[in-house]
Design a protein that fits this description.
It contains 18 helices and 12 strands. With about 475 residues, it is an alpha/beta fold. The protein has 2 domains: about 190 residues, Rossmann fold, CATH 3.40.50; about 180 residues, Rossmann fold (3-Layer(aba) Sandwich), CATH 3.40.50. Strands 3-2-1-4-5-6-12 form a 7-stranded mixed sheet. Strands 9-8-7-10-11 form a 5-stranded parallel sheet, with helices on both faces. Helix 13 links the parallel strand 10 and strand 11. The chain starts with 6 loop residues before the first strand and ends in a 37-residue tail after the last helix.
Length: about 475
Amino acid sequence: MKQQKRAFLFLQGVCSPFYPRLAKRLVNDGHRVVKVNFNAGDIAYWQRTHGESHLFRGPLTELPGYIQHLWQKYAITDQIVFGDRRPIHRPAVDNAAAAGVRTHVFEEGYFRPFWITLEREGVNGHSLLPRNPSWFYETGKALPEPPAPVRFRSSFKIRAMHDVGYHLAGLANPLVTPHYRNHAPITAPVEYAGYLKRFTQLKFWKKRDAERIKALIESGRPYFMLPLQLNSDAQIRDHSPYANMQEVMDEVMASFATHAPSDTQLCIKNHPLDMGLVNYPRMIQQLEERYGLQGRIVYLESGDLNALLKHARGNVTVNSTVGIVSLEKDCPTYALSDPIYNLEGLTYQGDLADFWQQPQPPNSELFGYFQKPSCTPFRSMVATTASPVSIWPWTTPPAYSKPARHRWRSCCEPTPTLSLCTNHRRHGGDWWGASSRLRRIWHPSRAARPPVINAGSTGGDLPRARRPGHTLDHHANR
C-alpha cells in the first residue's frame, strides 16, 4: 500500500544543522514541511532548507492562535519540537491532541552520550512510558536484540561553534523579533563568561580532583555520591520539587548528618557543564558547619564519574541521567524526584533516611530489560525512546545496514505510539540514515492507536512528586 504523505510543523530545535537536514529528508520523501522561526538564529539555520517557513514576531499571548492557524492552513498532521517545556512550545504541545496533531519531542538523551531521545507527546516527567515494572519484563522479553551503539568522541568545540553562531545571529532579535525571549534563564554572554572562567581553572581542578578520587577510593571508607545537576535544566525547573541545587544539597546533607553511619562520606560532584556562576565550595562549607559534617564531605569539580559510582555505596540524585549510569554500575540509587527509571526494583523506594543505612542494589534482570545499550537485554527503552543519530554533526561513519534496519523496525512494533530507537552515530553522523525509523514511527497507520501503557502506569499527565509532601506546582512557571 502506498504510504500517505504527511505534513510536519517544525517548531524550535537545537542550534545546529540537525533540523534543516531532517526537514530536507522528509521533503525528499514527499512529505510537507513547514517551519516556524522565532528569532534570527532560527532563520540563520533554516535558510537553505526545502520547506516553507514563517516568522512569528508577536507576543507570546498571540502564539496559540497563530499555531492553530498554521495547523489549519497546511493541514498539519505532525509537529516536531526539541524539548516540550519551552514557553514557545507549550501552546502547541498542550493543544495538539484536541486538534488531531501528533507531537514528537526530541531530547538530548536518557542514555548518554551515544543516544538521543524521541518520544510521543512528551519527555521526562511527561513521558508516556509505563511505570509498571512488569511491562518492561514482558516487552523486553518479546523484543529482539538491537545492535550495539557506535561509540564516538563528542566534540565540545563543534557544539560551542554552533551555539556561538546561533547567538551571534540573535543580536538582530530586537529588530527581527522584538517580543522574543529565550527560554534559558541565563543569557548567552553571561553563560560564555562563566565557561571561560571555569575552563581556565579546569586544568588545576583535574589534577586536584584526581588526587581526591584516588584517596577516596583507596581509603576503603564507604561513601555515597551526590552528582549535581544544572539549575537551568528543565529537569530541575519543571520536573522536580526543587528550585536549585542549593535546596537539594541542604536536604541531602541534613539527612546524611542525621541518619548516615558515622564512618561514611558524601562525595558531591559538580556537573561538567556548570557555568561556574554559583560558588558551590563556599555553599558546601557553610552546610558542613551547619550540620557538623566537617571531614565527611568530598567536593569535586571534575573526575571519572564511572569509577566513583563503581566503588560507591549508593547514589542520590534528583532525576539526572546519572541515575541510569549508577543503575548500570549496580550502584544502589535513590531518586529525590520521579524520573523515568524510578521503578520498584531499580531505585530505592523507601525514605532517604533508610537508604543511608540499607542501600539496596538494583535488580539486574529488570535493568537489563530497561536499558543496557551494549548488552542483549537492552530492548524496551531503546525500542521506545532512544534514537541513534546525532544532533551535532561530527564525522560520517558507515551507513546503516538493511538487516539492522529491519531489526529496528521490529523493535518499534510493540510500542508504536511511544517513540523509536536509533543510535547517535551509526547513521551518517546525523538523522538521515535513520529516516526509515522516522518514517515508521510517523506512518499514518499509527495515528489512531492509543499509547501502549498497561494498567498501573502513569500516562502523559503532569509529573508526579517523588516524595510525600513534595509538589511541583510552585515551580511550574520557573
